[in-house]
Amino acid sequence: MRFTPYLVLAPTAAVAFAQLFDPLHRTASDIQQQPQSQSVNHAQIPLAKPAGELGPAMPPSGAPQADGPANAGGGSSVMLSDVMGRDKSINLFAGFLRSIESPSQRLDDPARNTTVLAPLNSAIESLPRKPWEDPRDYSALGANAYEGEDGQGRAQRNLRRFVEAHLIPTSPWPAGEKIKPVGGDTEVWWEEKDGVKRIQPGDIEVLSVGSSVVNGEVWILNGVRNAS
Ligand SMILES: *[C@@H]1O[C@H](CO)[C@@H](O)[C@H](O)[C@H]1NC(C)=O
User: Where is the FAS1 domain (predicted)?
Assistant: First the structure.
């Protein structure tokens, strides 16, 4: 499996995170009742699977079926929510996004433009801790900070903060325009040096503009923003 860092979790946490990353928001008992599901067995969480399954041919759950002519080839009704799953290099971030309701709705809304700053899977995997972990929780609550219902809620809030620190509530986003992300109070802007866009603060390189659709753009980053 490619996502080893996410597979080593205690069984309780495994249930919690199987729910966190389950796009259908099934309950833990629903998951356990499904013999085919690998979600909780052996504490192995197919975190990559939901995102991986949603390839280009399949819109995220809740999105309109993309079988009309308008949706067939980048037509005017294609939303960010439709294209987030297309690029496998950012499918960890896309999975996080899908697991949280309000940002998902935002990307499905034609009236609200967003520049999505999507870190590469490799950037997320090389973080010293998981995006839902906060050292402050560990110092306040100890090693079980993400156990149980409270712990799951805590992890979900942290993950939401991480995701929302990567959503810029405007598109097009002009160079140098300082703006607060959807979540967080620190202003963000970008500048171009030697033909490379860099997100500031943090000097995070924008590798490419992945998709450009009716309600915004997906920019692929080689690093993550500091969400705390
Ligand atoms: C939203 O994005 C679209 C596509 O880039 C653009 O045509 C439109 O002007 C943007 N709307 C606003 C309010 O920025």
Answer: 77-225
- The proportion of the chain whose per-residue pLDDT surpasses 90, expressed as a percent, equals 61
Please name which of 227, 5, 2 lies closest in space to residue 129, comparing C-alpha atoms. Answer: 5
Expressed in angstroms and rounded, the spacing between residue 85 Cα and the centre of ligand 1 is 22
From residue 135, alpha-carbon distances to 42, 105, 143, 165, 200 in Å are 27, 29, 10, 18, 24
- Residue 39 in 3-state DSSP? coil
Q: Which two tokens stand for residue 179?
A: 């703006």
d(CA 25, CA 34): 14
**In this structure, are residues 21 and 99 in contact, taking their beta carbons and an 8 Å threshold?**
yes
**Is residue 115 in contact with ligand 1, taking CB distance under 6 Å?**
no
Q: If you classify domain 59-221 with CATH, what class do you get? A: mainly beta
Note whether 43 and 7 are within 8 A (CB).
yes
Q: Where are the domains of the chain?
A: 59-221
The 3-state secondary structure of 52-65 reads HHCCCCCCCCCCCC
Residue from 105, 130, 117, 225 nearest 171 by CA: 117
Confidence (pLDDT) at 5: 36
Q: What is the pLDDT of residue 77?
A: 87
Q: Is 121 in the pocket of ligand 1 (CB under 6 A)?
A: no
- Helix/strand/coil percent split, the chain, to 5: 40, 15, 45
pTM above the 0.90 mark? Answer: no
